[in-house]
Amino acid sequence: MLAYLAAHDEWLGAHHQYTVVHVVRELPSRAAAALEKDVVKGYYADEAEKVFKPIRTFFAKQGLAAEFTAKVGHAGEHIAALADKGGFDLLVMGSHGHGALAGLVLGSIITQVLSRCETPVLIVR
Fold first, then answer.
1. Which of 123, 120, 6, 4 is closest to 59 using CA atoms?
2. pTM of the shown model
3. Do 47 and 24 form a contact (C-beta atoms < 8 A)?
């Protein structure tokens, strides 16, 4: 997705505002209950930062500022709610392509976002 953005100058520039969202899957309740709250909170922060680190580097190389938001839970719900609440003009999402069986079992996050979100969505494959 970042390569697509970099290849299309009209999508990048200081005249746009960028918000990068990553939703970390919630730990099973039994596992979370067995750990201290600070450990769980640190785990979620570390998992989000693994995703954010290369994206921060990309934006820095482009000389652009971006807001980074990490959530915990169901990705489709959080992304759609944040997009609608944030009043974004466009939501750009990458497609992972899990395949038909995995998509059937797991459900597509993009499908969940599309069904819940009123913001236009650009899917980059």
1. 6
2. 0.83
3. yes
Contact 91, 123 (CB under 8 A): no
What residue type is 5 in one-letter code? Answer: L
Q: Are 77 and 26 in contact (CB under 8 A)?
A: no
| Residue-wise pLDDT tens digits, 31-49 | 999 999 999 999 999 999 9
Give residue 79's pLDDT band: very low, low, confident or very high (50, 70, 90): very high
Spatial distance between the Cα atoms of 65 and 17, rounded to a whole number of angstroms? 8
Q: Is 109 exposed, middle or buried (0-12, 13-18, 19+ CB in 10 A)?
A: buried
